[in-house]
Amino acid sequence: xxxxxxxxxxxxxxxDPEIDRPLPELGFIEDxxxxxKSVMVGFRLPTYWCSPxxxxxxxxxxxxxxxxxxxxxxxxxxxxxxxxxxxxxxxxNSFYSFEEMFSDKTDGxxxxxxxxxxxxxxxxxxxxxxxxxxxxxxxxxxxxxELTKQTLIPFTRNDRTLEELMKxxxxxxxxxxxxxxxxxxxxxxxxxxxxTIEQFNDHLLHARRSRLTMExxxxxxxxxxxxxxxxx
Amino acid sequence: MYRTVxxxxxxxxxxxxxxxxxxxxxxxxxxGEEFINCFYDYHRNLTPPEYHWDKKSFLKYSxxxxxxxxxxxxxCDMAIFQPVPLTDFYKEPFGDIxxxxxxxxxxxxxxxxxGSFDPRDKEKGLKVxxxxxxxxxxxxVKLYTAEWRGESKGYKLSDPWAKRYLExxxxxxxxxxxxxxxxxxxxLNRDAFDVADIDDAASSFxxxxxxxxxxxxxxxxxxxxxxxxxxxxxxxxxxAMPFVYARPRYFAQIISELLFWLDEDRIxxxxxxxxxxxxxxxxxxxxxxxxxxxxxxxxxxxxxxxxRKILGENAARIYDIDIPRKKEELKNSxxxxxxxxxxx
Lengths: 232, 344
What we know:
The complex is a heterodimer.
Chain A: H1 2-11, H2 23-26, E1 29-35, E2 38-43, H3 52-67, E3 74-79, H4 85-93, H5 98-101, H6 110-136, H7 141-146, H8 149-156, H9 160-175, H10 200-228
Parallel strand pairs in A: 2-3
Antiparallel strand pairs in A: 1-2
Helix pairs in contact in A: 3-4, 6-9, 6-10, 8-9
Chain B: E1 2-3, E2 9-10, E3 13-17, H1 30-46, H2 55-59, H3 63-72, E4 78-81, H4 97-106, E5 111-113, H5 122-136, E6 140-143, H6 160-172, E7 176-180, H7 196-204, E8 209-213, H8 220-229, E9 233-236, H9 243-246, H10 248-261, E10 267-268, H11 278-287, H12 292-298, H13 304-318, H14 323-330
Parallel strand pairs in B: 3-4, 4-5, 6-7, 7-8, 8-9, 9-10
Antiparallel strand pairs in B: 1-2
């Protein structure tokens, strides 16, 4: 039982790159089987045609996250009912790269660039949610731009929502290798450059577009998956 | 024609319909079956239960059904065919310009039958495009950049051959280029996340209109960005429309983003029939109002004037349709009003 829980805890760390939400929450994890030290993770997607590059990213991330568990020696991925199931599974289970498996579908830039593009989208999406929440709670724009981890943390003590928003934002900053030390300004662009008050409104508009797109895709994909597999 | 309770009339053009054949007999392989299954899931996912089709009717429907759904029950004054051949999945084309043309001829003035091309057909395809333009008087084409063709899983509008085709369109007077950039139905690495080729094509061909179908979903943000840069980029609402019923809050957010970034003159209604029927989409859209908080945040307005543009005037403008004159022409047409007189 505990082993299953441990596996699911690792899977919570794997997100759909387009949606920026964990796979278990989206219903993408079909099942988990544990046999001694080896783990099989079955996953499924909303359509037979979902892009293989995203499927490949998710499959690699599942493999790598579950492999982090100290007792696991082997992880087998099983993407089901997809136009490229066989290739994705064979590739990820044998540690081939996306290029090696899908040479006809890549221009040679690999999946790293794609991963980065979607990390940046997630960064702005999460930042927008945090900004919007702070504005709604009557924090001035000037104040917000000055925020550091040190000055933000005290406000999260009695505010679970804010705490969650902050954690998720700090986490994506870390993934982009941005400086999260205590006295560094947190509201920056994707390169870590702090925003100015003149940029604030425009920045918020652009970030809103990113957040909205991700939310919309999340909704679309999740309900489509429910329709496809008659869940409710 | 849609009439409001106050007696206002709206001229309706559905800019995205199809007459398809995905029947078992016409499926070439498993992909043909999976393709229509995916459409059927879209349909079931976002359609009010009372408008659900059974699977068999969804695979293949008659011309009479189309006329009845789009015109008699669907308020439309005109509709635009956007054919997608998908000949790697189906024996006869999934969407077939020839079959569409039979309806175009049978109901004069009601349809615009668009063509399609595929730059991978190179020289030969350019000839075909010329011939089809002559034969069908093409004013627009539907491009499906994710379509499979043997080993190739798609193309980009910025490819050299695509540019040659766009030059040909300009020469032939085909000025409306409808590009499918939507939920990925066929897997393709590039198409899956990139609308940048539209940007490139739109700036290279300022005299052509690029209508991005499905408003670039799932890349709404990239699409909005491109559309602010390029004034000849339009957003087709097919696929986004049914959210007006299924998730009105999301619909409000999407439409207000579009109004904000594109403006009200560059958004086109499309049902994506037969995935969804225009009748209920239009009913829900006409009843729909933006929530106050969204209006406050974005400053967007979706009043009767804007709805009128989205539902007909914008498409009329890019297809050179003079609405008052068209209304006269259609007065004696057999398909006249919703439910009044059936022509089938």
